[in-house]
């Protein structure tokens, strides 16, 4: 498991002794679709790092309707804000697909690792990334900008998930999603079929983030 830990972005700077210690307080667990990592209101005891799969965070409104707040996929801390603040989780985390998750006992992790500047910086960057994602979500973006951004950052999702699920992650109508995806392929930006998905022109894809005048909303 030490080799697997070394591959995780947060822990790449650790030496063998530190990795051995981390190994002692950690486990990699596999979860099935529908499994819950934690419920809203639970006291946080572990640090969760998503290695592979798709997890949705949600809470119930006053009418007991589910309000999906965000999705996370691969190489992401889940619920770390509550864990770091030692406050009850404000959301429920549920696996949408088969997931592999690194579970770390937080008391021991805090004592032995949070004083490491590289790990502390890694956690800060995770939080900054989530703030950036939230800001992008709240910005007025075209459907093409949303799609281009997801492809640029996580094109692997397009070989793992059904199209309707990716459209749901983007909060986009399936018809709009399919139309924009076909447009990108027709313009030579991406290439895909049912078995593969490839970015052909990464520069052109990145340019779509800022302005998409020739694409439909």
Provide a short characterization of the protein structure.
This protein is an alpha+beta fold. The chain contains 10 helices and 10 strands.
What does this structure look like?
The protein is α+β, with helices and mostly antiparallel strands and 217 residues long. It folds into two domains: 2-137, Sandwich (Jelly Rolls), CATH 2.60.120; 141-207, Arc Repressor Mutant, subunit A (Orthogonal Bundle). The protein is 42% helix and 24% strand. The strands form three sheets. Strands 1-8-3-6 form a four-stranded antiparallel sheet. A four-stranded antiparallel sheet has the order 2-7-4-5, with no helix packed on it. The protein has a two-stranded antiparallel sheet with strand order 9-10. α8 (163-169) packs across α9. The longest helix is centred in the middle third of the chain and has 22 residues, at 117-138. The protein is globular. The chain starts with a helix and ends in a 10-residue tail after the last helix.
């Amino acid at each position: 498991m030490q080799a697997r830990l070394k591959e995780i972005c947060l822990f790449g700077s650790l030496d063998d002794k530190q990795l051995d210690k981390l190994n002692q307080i950690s486990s990699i667990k596999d979860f099935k679709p529908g499994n819950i990592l934690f419920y809203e209101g639970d006291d946080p005891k572990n640090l969760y790092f998503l290695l592979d799969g798709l997890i949705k965070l949600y809470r119930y409104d006053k009418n007991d309707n589910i309000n999906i707040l965000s999705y996370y996929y691969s190489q992401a801390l889940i619920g770390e804000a509550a864990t770091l603040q030692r406050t009850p989780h404000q959301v429920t985390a549920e696996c949408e697909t088969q997931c592999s998750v690194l579970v770390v006992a937080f008391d021991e992790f805090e004592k032995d690792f949070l004083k490491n500047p590289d790990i502390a910086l890694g956690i800060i960057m995770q939080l900054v990334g989530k703030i950036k994602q939230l800001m992008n979500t709240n910005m007025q973006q075209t459907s093409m900008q949303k799609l281009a951004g997801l492809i640029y950052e996580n094109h692997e999702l397009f070989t793992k998930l059904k199209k309707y699920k990716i459209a749901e992650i983007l909060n986009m109508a399936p018809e709009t999603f399919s139309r924009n995806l076909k447009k990108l392929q027709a313009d030579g930006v991406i290439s895909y079929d049912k078995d593969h998905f490839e970015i052909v022109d990464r520069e052109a894809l990145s340019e779509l983030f800022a302005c998409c005048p020739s694409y439909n909303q």
